[in-house]
Amino acid sequence: MAEAPSAAWDVYARTAPTRRAVNSRGEKTWFNWTQHADHGPGAEVLGLGAGGKAVDLGCGSGGNAAHLARLGMRAVGVDLSARQLARARERWGETGGVEWVERDALDWLTAGPGGWDAVYSVFGAAWFTDPELLAPTVYAGLRDGGVFAFSHRPPVEGCYGRQAAFIPRGEGEDPAVVTRWDHPPETWCELLQGCGYKDVTATVIPPPEQGPRRAGTLLVRGVRGAGSRAG
Ligand SMILES: C[S@@+](CC[C@H](N)C(=O)[O-])C[C@H]1O[C@@H](n2cnc3c(N)ncnc32)[C@H](O)[C@@H]1O
């Protein structure tokens, strides 16, 4: 029988990278859409004003949600891994304005209150949930003008749609397996536009010029149009 996704992500939590205490600018919190340190755009992508309400789908150890809270916004970090959320609570437990929820992202959004100013995901649940289900559900949960944005690795050329992703478990053990959805930028644009999103962009943020890691980061963004609803 297949392993539950929460158990697979608990495996990941054992070895997941830990955010540094401070970044290169000496800041204790920051927003990073990419897999590279001190790189790429920040929270401004979300277009949040003071007191704005945001949801992080697959928040992991919570650094991005904690940053929004420190900026004076309200953030909900949703993650199905108890171990990941334990890391978030341990690191950011003293930070007001952020709530941690242990739940599948799609289930929580479907049942949630809606009216969000922004819903985002950084290498998170938006990569590991069928976008045909998630994108319209996010749309329904956003206020008019609200932003949906997510990032992850760009697809490997020709490897599109539902893919197996392997999480190393340990020497001599089979990896945990989860599924993710990879698409080229133009497919993401069509998919979001088909749900009613406006001003849709899907771009690859180039990697830093220096350093051994050469993969960029795909960043997809769309805005809920005023008065419209996903079909
Ligand atoms: C690669 S980690 C990224 C964590 C975090 N966003 C970051 O940037 O460090 C992926 C996270 O998404 C969570 N996740 C995957 N599928 C999910 C789902 N369907 N619902 C909620 N969380 C999910 C995992 O538990 C894990 O914490």
Structural account:
It comes from Streptomyces tsukubensis (strain DSM 42081 / NBRC 108919 / NRRL 18488 / 9993). One of its GO terms (biological process) is methylation. InterPro entries: Methyltransf_25, SAM-dependent_MTases_sf. This is Class I SAM-dependent methyltransferase. GO terms for molecular function: methyltransferase activity. This protein has 231 residues and is α/β, with parallel strands linked by helices. The chain has a single domain, classed as Rossmann fold (3-Layer(aba) Sandwich). Helix content is 26%, strand content 28%. The protein contains 6 helices and 9 strands, in the order H-E-H-E-H-E-H-E-H-E-E-E-H-E-E. The strands form 2 sheets. Strands 3-2-1-4-5-9-8 form a 7-stranded mixed beta sheet, with helices on both faces. It has a two-stranded antiparallel sheet with strand order 6-7. Strand 6 (161-167) and strand 7 (176-182) form a beta hairpin. Helix 1 (5-15) crosses helix 3 (82-92). The protein starts with a helix and ends in a 7-residue tail after the last strand. Bound molecules: S-adenosylmethionine. The site of S-adenosylmethionine has 18 residues, from helix 1 and strand 2. S-adenosylmethionine binds next to helix 1 and strand 2.
What distinguishing features does this structure have?
single chain; 231 residues; alpha/beta; Rossmann fold; seven-stranded mixed sheet; two-stranded antiparallel sheet; 6 helices; 9 strands; 28% strand; binds S-adenosylmethionine
